[in-house]
Amino acid sequence: MATPRRLSLLAPASRAETRRIADILRKETIGGALLLLAAVAALVWANSPWSETYAGLRSATVGPAGWHLDLSLAKWASDGLLAVFFFVAGLELKREFVAGDLRDPRRAVVPVAAAVGGVIVPALLYLLVNALLDDGAMRGWATPTATDIAFALAVLAVVGRRLPAALRTFLLTLAVVDDLLAIVIIAVFYTSHLSVVPLLAALAPLGVFTVLVQRRVRSWWLLLPLAAVTWGLVHASGVHATVAGVLLGFAVPVLRSEKAGGPEAGPGLAEHFEHRFRPISAGVAVPLFAFLSSGVPLGGLGGVTNLLTDPVPLGVIAGLVVGKPLGIMAATWLTARFTRADIDEGLAWVDVGGLAILSGVGFTVSLLVGELAFGLGTARDAQVKLAVLAGSLVAALLATVVLRLRDRAYRRLAEAETAECERAGAVAGDDRPPYGE
């Protein structure tokens, strides 16, 4: 009787999954660079002599008032542009759990547990820091729970080029589950009011959209209006409009139909849409949201020193820098402990620690949750944004130190293996008889 194979932490992905993930990494890494440039540009403009023009741009109102869509550009960015981001997240989530490596519970248990730990611990740490406040500060508990995959992968691409591919796969998979948890948190905890009629009405265009994509219809002139109407009705219902993007993503089939050859015939419609919309999400939607959201006056609201004295920004920073890595490491270790799993050969726990620290880079969703918790444009919203920027920067710098050291260790190991192979080849060549004997 064969001995059952023990669970392996950070095991390499399948070959097909590795190719797909490599494509995602390239796009998200470029998106992370654009995200950083957009955030820096917003900060520079908001703290320049022309800061009033930046504030005027963010508050400029666009859209039909009769349909309750006369929103500021900043609101359009958080409600509209991020719907594209969450549509791609919905596609990615469904694909991972239907056809990706996460369909195997043995592979899914580690990143799922790590993501859950990376949400619970920073939330508890934020609540602990703000336990004595009673002025609505507790509403920001979810702000430090999210990981910005584009930003984190951009850092990893720069400092960890020689790190094993399994580490990148683990970070990406963890972030996918993290997005799912963020979606649930936004839908459940940050719906201030609920209008049932528009929400029920949204089921009609969503249903038609679902029927069309299930029939493998790709015509944009049919699908895009249905998606826009679904988004508008969800927005009118009081549920955050980005949830519409997730529902639309979940509606898209992952596998090919039997008439088209079934799962073995190649990528399905979800992967087709993901390939089309991920560049738009990573290269346009998220950077524009960052540009319209992260411009915070550094000298106002007590300045940078306020980050370490006010419990709200302090709780956000503590959650990102301490809570995220602590939660991820604890959940991963407990998973290994209770499942008797072994870390994959060639990897070390310090590698997991470096990724856990890097997961504290929370940007896009953290900024969004801060706006939902305290109100767009409020004083506390500005404090939270500054705290998210500061906490993400500290997490990125700490992760850079750890991962750079590990990158050098893997480089020395690769050089030693190459030298050994060259010596072995030279010895084999010396032992061969002369030509002609």
Automatic annotation (TrEMBL):
Transmembrane segments: 29-47, 67-88, 108-129, 141-159, 171-190, 196-213, 220-252, 314-336, 348-370, 382-403
Gene for this chain: nhaA
Source organism (scientific name): Microbispora maris
Reactions accelerated catalytically: Na(+)(in) + 2 H(+)(out) = Na(+)(out) + 2 H(+)(in)
Family label: Belongs to the NhaA Na(+)/H(+) (TC 2.A.33) antiporter family.
Protein location: Cell inner membrane; Cell membrane
Membrane topology: Multi-pass membrane protein
InterPro entries to which the protein is assigned, alphabetical: Na/H_antiporter_dom_sf (IPR023171), NhaA (IPR004670)
Function summary: Na(+)/H(+) antiporter that extrudes sodium in exchange for external protons.
Descriptive protein name: Na(+)/H(+) antiporter NhaA
Cited PANTHER family: NA(+)_H(+) ANTIPORTER NHAA, SODIUM ION/PROTON ANTIPORTER NHAA-RELATED
UniProt keyword annotations, A-Z: Antiport, Cell membrane, Ion transport, Membrane, Sodium, Sodium transport, Transmembrane, Transmembrane helix, Transport
